[in-house]
Amino acid sequence: MGEEIRTFLEKRHISMTKASGLLYMVSLFAGFLVHRSIRKHVQLPVISPEEDKADDNRIETVGRLLEYECKQLGIETDEIMNELVVPMVGHKALMEPILTKVYEMFDSLILSDSFREPTEAQIDNVELWGDSLAHYVDRKEEYFQAVQELFTLVLAASQSSLDDQPQHMDHHARLEEIKKTYEIEPDDFEKLRRRATEFYRIAFAKYLSMVFQPVREEVDEKLLKAGSTPQR
C-alpha cells in the first residue's frame, strides 16, 4: 500500500512525516478490519464474546483518534476510509502474512495432545452436536484417526487457496479413501466430517486471535491507558 499512501498524501501536499500520526491510526484501524474480514470469510465461530466486545471499544477509540488526525491535517475522514482503509481490508499483500502465520501454527497441532485431548473429549458429545456416533464406543481410536485425517484434509484445502498455483487435490477421492481405510459407515462418516470441520474452524479462530493479539495490546497500552489522548 506504500504507493497508494504516497499518492494520497502528495495530492494533498502533506509529507509522510507530518502524517505519521494519521498513518499509524490508519494501520491500526485497517488491522481490526482485516481481522474481522478474515473471520467473516472463513466463517469462524465466536470463541471469546468478551474479547469481541473489547474489540468494539478498541475500534471506537482508534476511529475517534483517526478522525482527530484527519481534522488536524484538513482531510475528510471519508476520504481516508474510502481511499486507504477499505482497500487495505482486501489487500492480498496484507492478508497473506496473517494467514501464513495462522497456518504455521497448525503445523505442530495435529499430532499433539492439544489436538487429541479436546477431540476425544468432544467427538461424541450429544449435547454439543445434537447427534451421536453409532459405533464410536467400540472404535474410538479408528474414529479419532479418521477425524485427524479429515481435519488435515480441511487444512490442506484451506492452505491451497493461498498458493498462486494451487495444487490439484481430488477432494472426493481422498474422502472415499479415508472412509474405506477406517471402514466407517456413511452416516457416521458424514458426522465425523462435520466434527472435523468444526474442530478446524475453532482452531483457526483461536490461532487468528493469537496472531492478532499484539494489535489489541498495542491499542490497550498506547491508546486506552493514555486516556485516548493523541500524543503530538
Provide mean pLDDT, rounded.
Answer: 89
Radius of gyration: 23 Å
The description of the largest β-sheet is:
none
Order of helices and strands: HHHHHHHHHH
Shape by Cα distribution? elongated
| Tally of structural domains | 2
Computed structural class: mainly alpha
State the low-pLDDT regions, or none. none
- Approximate helicity band: over 70%
Strand residues, percent: under 5%
Task: Specify the number of helices.
Answer: 10
Descriptive notes:
The chain has 232 residues and is an all-alpha fold. It folds into two domains: 2-91 and 213-224; 103-206. The protein is elongated and about 70 Å long. Helix content is 74%, strand content 0%. The protein has ten helices and no strands.
Brief descriptors of the model:
single chain; 232 residues; mainly alpha; 2 domains; 10 helices; elongated
